Amino acid sequence: MITASSDDPAYRTLFSDGEHQALADTTREKGGSGGGFWPHTLLEAALATCINITLRKYAEKHAIPLSQAIVKVQLDRSHPGEAIFAYEVELQGNLTATQQEALLQAAGDCAVKQTLLRRISFKQGIA
After folding, report:
1. What is the pTM of this model?
2. What CATH number should be reported for the domain whose range is 39-116?
3. pLDDT in tens, 84-123
4. Cα separations (Å) of 93 from 59, 105, 112?
């Protein structure tokens, strides 16, 4: 569970899972201080980090000599009613074409992507 608490200045928000914490904010153009991650970049980060971890776990499990994985994710919200997560994967290491293909296939199976593909609903509670 993530807890988000109001912070100063303006819209800066401290969020924590009880063990780790970070700051989120909105852009200066939208009244924030720019002093933290923009909430939509956190969605991008969730997908990018999950793909990266998935690649490394797969490589380790299958003894693939992956030395570095770099994942870039950009959320495109320019189409009404649709959110498009575009991502690029850069694989480094002495990899065969077969190993690269297997890694790219594994990237598509990351848990965050699988969650985002599901029907999403929201349940609001009051504390």
Report:
1. 0.91
2. 3.30.300.20
3. 999 999 999 999 999 999 999 999 999 999 999 999 999 9
4. 11, 17, 25
